[in-house]
Amino acid sequence: DGFDISGPNDNHGEDIIIVDCALEADDTYYGFRTRSVGTGFGNGRWINVHPYHQAAATNRMLSSFLVETSGNQFIGCHYEGGRQCLIDIGSRNHHSDAYIYAPFSTDPMAVMAGAHQYLQGLIEDSVPTGSSCLQIGTVGLGLFNSHLDVTCVTAATNAVVVTNDSGRNTGTLKTVGSTNAFTGTFNDTTRFTIQRPNNVVERYCDNLGIGMGPSAGIANPLHVRGAVVPAIIERYSADASPAAVIVRKSRNATLGSHTVV
């Protein structure tokens, strides 16, 4: 790896620039890594760390950053290059003013898993066709009780890939060019908003069962599920439209004086 931190706790580093950092094979190493050893070493403060490749490099990083430890602060770092720009599978890590860009694959640019995580920053430019901005959780590790606030100014296929949402997450992702708002399934205790160029909230998922679309899995502008009284919508008679409200149930039921199916 280019810069490998295996301890002790409470490291502090500023203005660390890492260029073409290894002679290892392509996709086998990391630019900057906080390595979990035993119980793991963390609580570092890292300011303006920037791993990257020169244009001629052919043995490129698997990820620009791999964070395996906990309690770290990353301030104003550039997460550039690699197959993925950021993979954080620790906990209680804080990424602020993050600048995430220029991956070399279609894998999601930033992957956040673990518990009590925070990510705030900008994702942009040089995204290969078919890629995604942000991945929530990994196959073996969910994201729990975390907050993500990201602006994605690139034409990714999916704004968010939900791989493993363990719940109680909050956040906002604003994107100017993603084809799809998200793919996967949000936990019912998560509150996450995705906003695309039409300024419509694409997804709001919470324990009230409210979704707004259109997006994957939500075909209608407003979708309410699982409530005793699903929705009350009032309109003046002059504005009434029979097609404005559709009531659906999984089986026949009586609603007021009408039977609905």
What is the count of β-strands? 25
Kindly provide the radius of gyration, computed on alpha-carbon positions and rounded to a whole number of angstroms. 22 Å
User: Structural class of the secondary elements?
Assistant: mainly beta
For the record, give the distance between the C-alpha atoms at the N and C termini, rounded to a whole number.
61 Å
Number of helices: 0
SSE run: EEEEEEEEEEEEEEEEEEEEEEEEE
Choose one word for the global shape: globular
Sheet having the most strands = 10 strands, mixed
Low-confidence segments:
204-209, 214-219
Q: Overall mean pLDDT score?
A: 78
Helix percentage range: under 10%
The percentage of residues in β strands lies in 35-45%
In short:
This protein has 261 residues and is mainly beta. The chain has no helices and 25 strands.
